[in-house]
Design goal:
Helix content: 25-40%
Strand order of the largest sheet: 1-2-3-4-5
Largest sheet: 5 strands, mixed
Structural class: alpha+beta
Distance between the termini: 70 Å
Number of strands: 5
Shape: globular
Length: about 160
């Protein structure tokens, strides 16, 4: 099976975003404000979206975010999302997307690429692509309640 990888420009994001909405969000659309932020981040080079095509159809999408690390004094990259259509799994789409992302990191002088792998299948996949678990590091999180908008008093 043949497929091609393309790094999407801000005006080319719709097919990739629809694909991720269907695959990762059960068809729920992304909020409009988030879509605009994604477009701005792609335009600024802080986020890159790689799309794998099988013919004219999207077969997989990888989103790659770049962030500065104050501790190292360098920029690192993080695979934020990697989703491959179930019918396209096992034929190299995910590996090709990762290879494209790694190549782009090298072009940008980024030598550290991380990913959070959810579940055994994802962990096996990333391990097969050369990723290793970090000893002593555990991802921890805290959900924060959204504060209501401040109430403004009207002048009399």
């Amino acid at each position: 099976m043949s497929f091609g990888i393309h790094r999407a420009k801000p005006k080319e994001l719709n097919p990739a975003l629809r694909f991720l909405e269907d695959g990762l969000r059960g068809g729920r659309p992304l909020p409009g404000g988030l879509v605009e932020r994604i477009r701005r981040d792609v335009a600024a080079g802080d986020l890159e979206i790689f799309v794998a095509f099988s013919g004219r159809d999207v077969a997989g999408v990888l989103t790659l975010a770049y962030r500065p690390s104050l501790a190292s004094g360098k920029v690192f990259a993080s695979v934020e999302d990697l989703y491959v259509r179930s019918s396209e799994r096992g034929v190299g789409v995910g590996g090709a997307l990762l290879m494209a992302a790694e190549g782009r990191c090298r072009e940008r002088g980024v030598s550290y690429l991380e990913v959070q792998a959810d579940g055994q299948e994802a962990q096996r996949f990333y391990a097969s692509e050369g990723f290793v678990g970090a000893s002593g590091i555990r991802v921890m999180f805290r959900s924060l309640p959204l504060a209501p908008a401040p109430h403004r008093r009207r002048s009399p």
